[in-house]
Amino acid sequence: MAVADPIARLVKELAKLPGIGEKTAQRLAFHILKAGPGYAGDLAAAVTGVVRDVRLCSTCQTLTDQDPCAICRDPDRDARTICVVEGVPDLLAVERTHEFRGRYHVLHGALSPLDGVGPSDLKIRELLVRLEREPADEIVVATNPDVEGEATALYLTKLLKPMGLKVTRIAQGVPMGGDLEYADQVTLARALAGRREL
After folding, report:
1. I want to staple 106 with a disulfide (CB 3.0 to 4.6 A). Which of 2, 61, 115, 162 is the partner?
2. How distant is the alpha carbon of residue 31 from its chain centre?
3. How far apart are CA 170 and CA 10, in angstroms?
4. 44, 84: one domain
5. Does the N-terminal peptide bond of residue 6 adopt cis geometry, omega within 30 degrees of 0?
6. 86 and 132 together in one domain
7. Residue 161 is part of which domain span?
8. Which pLDDT does position 127 carry in this prediction?
9. d(Cα 7, Cα 26) in Å, to the nearest integer?
10. pLDDT tens for residues 78-135?
């Protein structure tokens, strides 16, 4: 049985989303059809709205529909402590902990010379401009614990330390509920290096 062209087109477009294969795209397309025109209209409006209304915060470079974003506008946040993250999902992960009360800066990536991603491809210049405008006491580097994240953390440290800033790195090690026997050597070494007194 041939599938109608609009359905095939929708499946093709949905399959372009990250993590969505053709079968999942097909299930999503038939779900949209089954849900009815109201749902399809709401979905289309949400997609159109996010493309039209969302932009980068001029201060921290996160995605927002207001400039500056809600975190940068919040007077209860510590403007002198800035957590540098690779992407918006990382910012959201840190926010979910309810432990960090400072502000953020989103790099929109990590250094990766093999992939052609250098400092000029990230929002590092915007961070430097921001620090000239709004001095900070501490920069918390919260890049991912992989080769690219480590390279980015090292680059930022070499760039920011000479400015007299305190540059810290988030602790890394064995996750809660993890077994030491299954931890890799690098993770276990970092856990030992980052140990603290009880």
Report:
1. 61
2. 29
3. 42
4. no
5. no
6. yes
7. 79-172
8. 98
9. 8
10. 999 999 999 999 999 999 999 999 999 999 999 999 999 999 999 999 999 999 999 9
Q: What is the mean pLDDT of residues 46-72?
A: 97
Strands 138-141 and 166-169, sheet pairing: parallel
The count of structural domains within the chain is: 2
Residues 41 and 84 in one domain: no
Query: Looking at the structure, do residues 83 and 154 belong to the same domain, yes or no?
Result: yes
Higher-confidence residue: 109 or 181?
109
In this structure, what CATH number is given to the domain that contains residue 135?
A: 3.40.1360.10
Q: What is the dihedral of CA 91, 96, 100, 104, to 10 degrees?
A: 20
Whole-structure pTM value: 0.84
